[in-house]
UniProtKB/TrEMBL annotation:
Coiled coil: none
Family: Belongs to the cation transport ATPase (P-type) (TC 3.A.3) family. Type IB subfamily.
Residue ranges annotated for the HMA domain, each copy included: 3-69
Full protein stretch here: 129 to 200 of 996
Subcellular location: Membrane
Protein name: HMA domain-containing protein
Highest rank taxon of the organism: Eukaryota
Organism name: Chenopodium quinoa (Quinoa)
Length: 72
């Protein structure tokens, strides 16, 4: 069973930033879907909580050089 997490992502200034965040998320084990918006600074991530946690997702975004916080 997967869950949906919404994350606020700061530091994205162009479409390539969005692509790199999406790529990082999609390569993260446990993530089954990731959509990131530049205009809203939001990332919607579908994930398997038995494989990766919300904190794990936040950490992966921050490791890529962006600021991330949990919306829900
Ligand atoms: Mo765009 Mo983002 O030139 O880290 S890729 S600013």
């Amino acid at each position: 069973k997967t869950l949906l997490g919404q994350f606020n992502i700061r530091g994205m200034t162009c479409a390539a930033c969005v692509n790199s965040v999406e790529s990082i998320l999609r390569e993260l084990p446990g993530v089954t879907r990731a959509v990131v918006s530049l205009t809203t600074s939001l990332g919607e991530v579908e994930y398997d909580p038995s494989v990766v946690s919300k904190d794990g997702i936040v950490n992966a975004i921050e490791d890529a050089g962006f600021e991330a916080s949990l919306v829900q």
